[in-house]
Design goal:
It is built from three helices and no strands. By secondary structure, it is mainly α. The longest helix is centred in the middle third of the chain and has 26 residues, at 26-51. The radius of gyration is 14 Å and the shape is elongated.
Length: 83
């Protein structure tokens, strides 16, 4: 599977999970803008897929970083929930 496809699937999964953070959690509020940014990237990746284009190395790196930060939000929300 191509790297863009893997990142697209990870971004979709992450957006889905970020939407499920308990609404009263401080991490739900902090992650909402991040989730919106990921949704824009998902749209961009889907458009690239349809036109058979690829992202630049810089764009791929930025998306990977957004995904990494999104997982940190999930981790912190989970820790908050377990307290």
């Amino acid at each position: 599977m191509q790297q863009q496809e893997i990142l697209l699937e990870q971004a979709r999964l992450l957006v889905n999970r970020l939407e499920r953070i308990y609404v009263d959690s401080i991490w739900a509020r902090r992650s909402s803008g991040h989730r919106g940014n990921l949704l824009k990237w998902i749209d961009k990746l889907e458009a690239c897929r349809q036109s058979q284009q690829t992202l630049s190395a810089q764009e791929l790196s930025r998306l990977e970083n957004l995904i990494r930060v999104g997982y940190r939000f999930l981790e912190k929300a989970a820790r908050e929930h377990m307290r």
